Amino acid sequence: MPEIQLLRPDHAPALLAFEQENRAYFAASIPDRGDDYFARFDERHRALLAEQEADVCYFHVLVGAEGEVLGRVNLVDVADGGAELGYRIAERAAGRGLATWAVRELCNLAANSYGLTVLRAATTLDNAASRAVLARSGFAVVGERQLSGRPGLSYLRSLADFTAPPSAPAAR
User: Fold this and answer.
1) CB–CB of 116/107 below 8 Å?
2) What is the rounded CA–CA span in Å between residue 93 and residue 79?
3) Containing H/E element for 164?
4) Alpha helices, DSSP H only, in the chain?
């Protein structure tokens, strides 16, 4: 299984390769990032790291055995005990349960490392794979919304069941 790593400066080359290799695949189900994203990738990467340093967002990469990026799983707009979940998995790694595993792992990290209590997510109606991942990961539909002009759904997930119980007092 790949490893979830908090985004670092040295992830930039593998992350750019991941985004370039999967651009058309992602654009089939989510809005394309646009040419400017790729032209200014290094600048954008530094900006993400600054947001992460300020505890506004937590960006993660799924790193495979060869150091390749197989996916991204992010928590953005962290505030008031909650955050928005976003994720994308490489086409060559899709359909193997990696997204569901990564989302569940990130729920655990969100609760136990970042102190969050709730996550929000959204996906378009035509993204059946993403809707299935969210359902399998315990997210509940809470409403409808538009995503880049496309009809979609909003989701919510309490992290109460991920919170580690306090340690039992030592026996005397």
Assistant:
1) no
2) 31
3) none
4) 12-21, 23-27, 35-39, 41-53, 98-112, 128-136
* pLDDT tens digit sequence for 112-171: 999 999 999 999 998 899 999 999 999 999 999 998 888 999 999 999 998 765 544 444
Q: Which two tokens stand for residue 89?
A: 């998995």
| Pair type for strands 118-124 and 82-89 | parallel
- Nearest Cα residue to 69 out of 29, 24, 10, 123: 10
pTM, two decimals, is 0.88
Signed CA dihedral, 48, 81, 146, 94: sign only: positive
β-sheet bridge partners, residue 145 = 152
Cβ(78)–Cβ(58) under 8 Å?
A: yes
Mind listing the pLDDT tens digit for each residue in 75-114?
999 999 999 999 999 999 988 999 999 999 999 999 999 9
Rg (CA), the chain: 17
The Cβ-side half-sphere exposure at 151, using a 13 Å CA radius, reads 4
Phi, psi angles (nearest 5°) of residue 102: -65, -40
CB 59 within 8 A of CB 74: yes
